[in-house]
Model the fold of this input.
Amino acid sequence: METESEWSFEELIDPKHTALIVIDMQNDYCSRKGSLCQRGSDVSMVEEMAPKLVHLLTYCRENGILIIHTRNIHSEYTDTDAWKRRGGPKAMSKVARRGSWGAEWFEEHPEFTPRTGEYIVDKHRYSAFIGTDLEIVLKAKNIKTLVITGTATNVCVESTARHGAMLDFHIIFLKDCTATYSKVLQESTETNMKNHFGTLATSGELIAMWTRSPDTKVGKAAPTVVS
Done:
């Protein structure tokens, strides 16, 4: 685990000022029936990661950690010419379209469906801060540290983490709770995060530290960490 200077890992993830950000765990990005897999993307890394993120999400629900979900929602109202040119009109017409099955939460794990009290950010670009109320929600909740998880690591996850760092949030990037469609791209983002944007960690390290914290509603023993 690589930590930022001047702040210990324990200080960074103090539950009083930490939020779990779950990025785009939607059918089109995670399921073998989703648009990306149908177009040739290998979702096996997402399938392997998902149970680990479910475990962390469940822990956070049981222990009072603020949870914020993001989801991509695309439609004719947000598809600018520049956006369509980058993705290609044919591809853009199929991925995470408003009202589609693909835009819904990853159905293989019902835990990814937000619970009452968990905030949902609908976004239309890679960064969850662009054109959304995410920053003001975090400030209203006095959040200083973002635990970044979800998919795809090198696109929406990395874009959100970078943007959060530029807004002076502390970034905890969980390498076992993020996934994309290429090991090379996963490792590249992890290197970027460690070198420039935040702290690289695992969900096991996070849970172990939170278990010792008096600010979480947790017993003496940590739950078994999915490996």
